[in-house]
Structure formats: C-alpha cells, structure tokens
Amino acid sequence: MSEIGWSNIEENVAKEAFEKAYQREITTLIEEVRVKASAIAEIKDMWILHDFLSARRHDIDGKYEYRNSVLIFVFARLVKEGWLNINELEGLDRDKLAKITALARM
Amino acid sequence: MSEIGWSNIEENVAKEAFEKAYQREITTLIEEVRVKASAIAEIKDMWILHDFLSARRHDIDGKYEYRNSVLIFVFARLVKEGWLNINELEGLDRDKLAKITALARM
C-alpha cells in the first residue's frame, strides 16, 4: 500500500483533512486538560493528570505522522476515532477511500 | 551526621514540620498547575505544562524523604526554600537547629 501515488489534488485534500483532525483533537484535549486541572484537589490528582498528559503526548506524537506511505492508515484511524468524517476526504480516489473506509471499520 | 539520635519529642516535632511543609508546597503547586492549565491556548503550552509536571514530580519525590539520617538536610532545604520557618522546628535540640540554620544559609 506504500506505493500508492498521490496526485496534487489528493495531497491538498489530505493535508487539509489531516490538519482539521489534528486541530479538533488538540482543541478537545486542551479543554479536557483544563477541566481536569481545575478539579485537582490533592497531589494524587495532579500525578494522574501528569500520567494522562504523558500518555496523550506519546499517542498524539505517534498518530499525526504525515507520510504518504502511512496516510491511509492514519486517516482510517482518525475516521474510526471520530476526528474526521469520511466525507472530508472527498477528492481522494475511489480506491483510497474504499481502503480507508474498510480499515476504519476494523 | 547520620548518627544523630532523635528523641520521641523531636520525632513528633519533625513529623509535624515535615507534613506542614509538604502541604504548603503541594497546595502552592496545585494552584500553580490550575493557573497554567487555564492559560493553555495551544498544544505547545500543554507540553510545557507536561514538562513542568515531570520536573516538579521528580523534585518533590526526591525532596520529601522522611529518613532520620537525611532529615537535617531536608529541613535545611525546606527552610531555605521558604516552605518551613525555623521557628516551626522548635523542640529539636540546639545542635540540630544550629546545623539546620547553618545549612539553610548555604
């Protein structure tokens, strides 16, 4: 799958969708961290927030990797997790969309 | 210095002072984290908060070690950093207080 070509139009669609998903996930995460932080009552809660941030940072750093060779998998994951709607990938060729849709259901 | 004995009275004074300093530092830190979290505007700010928490956790875990053999140094540090007033260690013998006072000035 790593040898699939991406046209310029597809590249634009992909970059825009990628950025949109990233902004959505980050915005949601920032809000979540604010809520968790405002609810800290004792030291234990603060270390729970720290562990949460460690895990999310690792997760996000690994997930948002813009490389053509893995983009199909990245988009499938983003659709599956709800950060992206499959409609927002319109403009990609049918084959890619079919793969993303199938992988997102797995 | 590790062979200094601690009477029961001194133990009580030490434990109370230790707990007091810990609560003060933690309370201040929780407030600080709340303020920082509420000011998060972008992802970079969130990772700065994460780094801050990593450093503070490491620092606090190392600092609040209740062992008689290191207590003089722990108290000296807490006094130096302002988490404890030397008066709150009244009840310890003169020699210990003199050592703590001297170390806190270093």
UniProtKB/TrEMBL annotation, chains A, B:
InterPro entries with a match to the protein in the record: Fluoresc_Recovery_Reg, FRP
Write down the superkingdom of origin.
Answer: Bacteria
A single Gene Ontology CC annotation of this entry is: thylakoid membrane
Task: Please state what the protein is called.
Answer: Fluorescence recovery protein
